[in-house]
Task: structure prediction
Amino acid sequence: MTFPVLLGTGRRMFAETSDKSAWKLRQSITVGEGVLITIFQRAR
Result:
């Protein structure tokens, strides 16, 4: 299960909608005892 956390400023990425958007995995790092840090980029 992934819980998105967005950092930065600018235009809102998740409006009040049920539409889905495409994302691609940009980077994945495993730290500690199997904690996975993932960075996604919005697919174009």
Q: What stands out?
A: The mean pLDDT is 81. The chain has no helices and two strands. Residues 18-44 form one domain.
